[in-house]
Amino acid sequence: MYILENIKLKAATLVGISLSASLMLTSASAKETAIDGGVKYDTKKGKYTSYYVNDQKVKYNHGRTPTEREIRAWNIDVMPDGTGLPEFDMKHGEVVLGEDGKPKKAQGTVEQGGELYDAQCVMCHGDFGAGGKGYPRLAGGTVSTLKNQLMNPADENPNPDAPIRTIGSYWPYASTLFWYIQDAMPFPHPKSLSNSETYALVAYLLSINSIKIDGEELGDDYVLDREKFLKIKMPNAKGFYPDVDTKNPHDGPKNIQKFMANPKNYGKGTKCMKDCIKGKVPVLKIQNELKDFQPAPSTKRDWFVPENKAAHPMQGAYEEKCSACHGNAAIGAPVVGDKDAWAKVTAKGLDGVYSNGINGINGMPPKGGVDMSDDDFKKIVDYMIEASK
Ligand code: HEC
Ligand code: HEC
Predict the structure, then answer these.
(1) Ligand nearest to the backbone CA of 205
(2) How far is 105 from 92, CA to CA, in rounded Å?
(3) 308 CA to centre of ligand 1 in angstroms
(4) CA 168 → CA 79, 136, 155, 236, 293, distances in Å?
(5) Angle at CA 106, nearest 5°, toward 93 and 123?
(6) Is 157 exposed, middle or buried (0-12, 13-18, 19+ CB in 10 A)?
(7) Does ligand 2 lie within 6 Å of residue 365's CB atom?
(8) Average pLDDT, 10 consecutive residues per value, the chain (389 residues)
(9) What pLDDT is recorded for position 281?
(10) Is the peptide bond before 186 cis (omega within 30 degrees of 0)?
(11) If you measure from the C-alpha of residue 118 to the centroid of ligand 2, how many angstroms do you get, rounded to a whole number?
């Protein structure tokens, strides 16, 4: 039962706003209905107010059956066992054909992935996946630091650094990576990457996390396809469940107890109930398997530079440096051309707008994450305001 006082619509007005007349229950054609077809029952004795009931017999006539192509474009989930992992290339739900007219094999190299990354991902995720300011890091972190957190509870852990969780150090399966990227990224244009492009990006991201496949390092020329993908073992694959034999129903709980009771597996490393910290607490040594891949979060980013065919002197700079975020409403940036949005921004006065932009605010990185002078930045802001009047 739904009580939908707030969105009720007079049945008589439904036709007027071009919802199908069949939305109304025949038995209730004279009654008021809610937008979901719920029928209004008036206040009767004993009832505190009128109420709506949707008995689900309503024929909505909303929407339509999705096309085969639409289903293909949306049905792109990939399971850890490889179910759904594509063998052939597809983009926007259409099979990509090779020169021979046959479906093209889906595959991509680390190098291709790097190029795609620089064109479509670096503006948010930073150089080499360094992340920064609300945009997640895509590289670095180690499985051993994750383990250290488990083994050294905060009360005794002299190491204040929280472990860095990234796709490389934390995600147990690469299938999630493939699926996530294709389903959700690049942020403003999800589902725009082909299967081959996604393989290339996964290859690149694994390579900057120095993850090997079947013992092989992922150099620039490494080609990732379905077959090789199925051999990926993510470093933290076993990090979510302790490796305890629970097959025998009688021994399972016993084995788990044994595992948890061993301080080497879980806890401080030694069993201790009283005066546990004696003398100097040893500084935890973090084994850093990925030493070379701990890029500092960047504030400076490289930008993809399109050809400058600007009509306004600052339009090119805007398109290069700001349009990834300001060209659409996906992440809440005021969209250039949106009069109301910019009227709100500029209401506080130009000085405030400049300083918010230069220092950064919420999802807006300082100067948009680009290294430039205050003056140049202000000129671009002036253009954005001008273009939004
Ligand atoms: C406009 C900014 C933007 C762009 C461009 C972008 N991303 Fe993201 N990405 C995000 C944000 C924000 C999140 C976090 C989303 C969340 O957690 O809900 C994210 C999350 C991710 C994650 C998951 C990270 C984690 O540890 O949870 C991956 C992987 C990823 N992006 C890959 C990519 C790839 C590959 C591209 C380029 C094809 C790309 N992104 C482009 C903003 C962006
Ligand atoms: C990574 C995404 C991103 C990039 C790149 C980016 N912006 Fe923004 N920008 C935002 C977001 C998100 C906001 C809204 C912040 C808020 O108020 O919550 C914003 C807000 C602003 C504002 C309004 C500040 C205010 O006072 O409210 C200005 C001005 C601005 N950006 C200028 C620029 C310029 C110029 C560039 C390019 C040099 C740029 N931005 C690049 C995300 C971005």
Answers:
(1) 1
(2) 16
(3) 27
(4) 18, 12, 28, 8, 11
(5) 80
(6) middle
(7) yes
(8) 40 37 39 69 67 70 74 89 94 87 95 94 88 83 63 49 79 95 88 94 96 95 97 87 80 84 66 61 46 46 45 84 81 86 94 94 85 94 93
(9) 54
(10) yes
(11) 20
Q: Best substitution site from 325, 353, 376 to test ligand 2's pocket, by max atoms within 8 Å of Cβ? A: 325
350 touches ligand 2 (CB under 6 Å): no
- With a 6 A CB cut-off, is 325 part of the ligand 2 pocket? yes
In this structure, the dihedral spanned by the alpha carbons of residues 159, 162, 168 and 169, taken in order and rounded to 10 degrees, is 60
Tokens of 4: 């939908």
Q: How far apart are the first and last CA of the chain?
A: 47
For 356-365, which contacts have Cβ atoms below 8 Å and span 24 or more sequence positions?
A: 357/381, 360/133, 362/134, 362/332, 363/133, 363/134, 363/325, 363/331, 363/332, 363/333, 364/325, 364/333, 365/132, 365/133, 365/299
Cβ distance 114 to 222 under 8 Å?
no
Single-letter amino acid, residue 333: A
Alpha-carbon distance of 324 to 344, in angstroms, equals: 21
CA distance 314 to 385: 12
Spacing, Cα 137 to ligand 1 middle (Å): 9
- CB of 380 shorter than 6 A to ligand 2: yes
Q: How far apart are alpha carbons 338 and 312 in whole angstroms?
A: 18
Which tokens go with 121?
């991902």
Distance 363 CA to ligand 1 centre (A): 13
Tokens at residue 245, please?
Answer: 């034999």
Whether 41 lines ligand 1, by a CB cut-off of 6 Å, is no
What span, in angstroms and rounded, lies between the C-alpha atoms of 23 and 10? Answer: 12
